Fold this sequence. Notes:
This protein has a seven-stranded antiparallel sheet with strand order 3-4-5-9-8-7-6. The radius of gyration is 18 Å and the shape is globular. A hairpin with a 6-residue loop joins strand 6 and strand 7. Mean pLDDT is 84; it is low at 1-17. By secondary structure, it is an alpha+beta fold. The protein has helices spanning 2-17, 73-84, 131-138; strands at residues 21-27, 30-35, 41-45, 48-53, 56-65, 90-93, 100-107, 110-117, 123-130. The protein contains three helices and nine strands, in the order H-E-E-E-E-E-H-E-E-E-E-H.
Amino acid sequence: MKFIGFAILALVLTGCASTHFVSFSPSPDYAVSVQAALFDAVRTDTNDATLFRNGKTIGFIKIEPVPTGAISASEFLETLESATESENVSTRPLNMSSGFSGFSAKNREYLTGYLLRDNNPDSILVISFPEDEFDEIAATISPGI
């Protein structure tokens, strides 16, 4: 009888500790998962999702097309990184899973990531979240659903 009570308690505690994620796929080429506890509302537009908590923006996920005049998407990403770097904004490369490359830029307490899927040279994924949440969210980036 003690074992059954112990098993039920373990199941309840395991259920409370689980983290639920919500996946966003702003295009067929990209998907990002965000912990559900971080937001309470979402506003969507074409290729764009803005997340809110208590009526304030906490982050966004969007797709930007690579300009038609760019020689290549990876060169455009390098140019974008150079243009983003400034006295007030520092950039760093992102260690992404295979098939993705990019960088992040820090501005105040937010990091904005610019990512390119290696086999999709037509668009760049842009995500922006508080610095303490960014790495966990960026680690979930995958091909779209």
